Amino acid sequence: DYDHTAIVQCIQDSGRVGLQHMLERACWFGDVTFVSRILHENTDRGQQVDWLEVITLAFLNGRSDIVRCVAAADRDSGYDNHLLLACTDGDVTCVQQQLNDDNVHVWTLYFILSHVCGHMDIADAIIDSGHITIHGKWLQAIITLGVYKPAVDHLIQRIDPTYTPPQSQLTTLHGACYRAISKCVQSLIATGSDVNAAGYMGWTPLH
Fold it and tell me: Could you tell me where the DSSP H helices lie in 49-201?
C-alpha cells in the first residue's frame, strides 16, 4: 500500500508542480479531500492561491462539495461566502435577506448552484426577485454542467424552453439531446420545444 498523500506532498514540495495547478486538477477530478487539506494547513501556502479560479472550476465541474469547502473556510474568492453556503445548504432565509443587497452580484451563479444542489425554493426566490432574466439559457447552463435532477422539470415550468441563443442558434433541446439527458428531452418536448429547430449547421436536436 502506498501513502498517496505523502507522494502528493513530496511532488508539491519539490516545486515542480504549482499549488494552484494541483488545486485546479483537484476541482476537475472532485478531490475535495486535497482541497480541504490545503485550506486547513497552518502555512502561508493557502494565501498564494487564486480561490476565485478554484471556486469557478469547481462550479463548472458540478463540484458543489468543493465550493462549500472553500466557502466554509471563508477564503476571499470574490463571491459572498455566506451566500455560497446558503445555496449549498438550502438556507432560503439567508438568501432572502440578501436579495435586496445591491452589493451582491453574480446572482446567476447562486441561482444555478442552488438548483444543482436541489434547493428549488432558493432558485425560485432568486427568480422572483428579478435578479436574473428568465429564459432558457439558464437551463442550458445547467445541462452543460451535465447535471440532471428531478428539479429540472420544475425549472422548465418557470422558463421558456424554446429560447435560442443568437450566437449559437442552438435550443435547449439541442443541449439536452447532446448530453443524452433523456428525461429532460422528454420534458422539453412535452412543454413545446421544437424538434425540427435547425442549429447553425442545419442539424435538428434529434439529428
Answer: 51-60, 64-72, 81-89, 92-98, 107-116, 120-129, 137-144, 151-158, 172-178, 182-190
Report the C-alpha gap between 136 and 120 in whole angstroms: 16
Angstrom distance (rounded) from CA 105 to CA 27: 23
**The C-alpha cell of 109 is what?**
451563479
Comparing CA positions, the residue from 49, 57, 10 lying closest to residue 29 is 57
* pLDDT tens profile 32-42: 998 888 888 75
Mean of pLDDT values over 96-125:
82
Q: Which residue in the block uniquely carries the three cell numbers 495547478?
A: 21
Q: Cα–Cα distance between 70 and 180 in angstroms, integer?
A: 31
* Torsion (CA) 89, 90, 92, 98 in degrees, nearest 10: 40
Residue type, 206: L
Q: Is the pTM of this model over 0.70?
A: no
CB 124, CB 132: distance < 8 Å: no
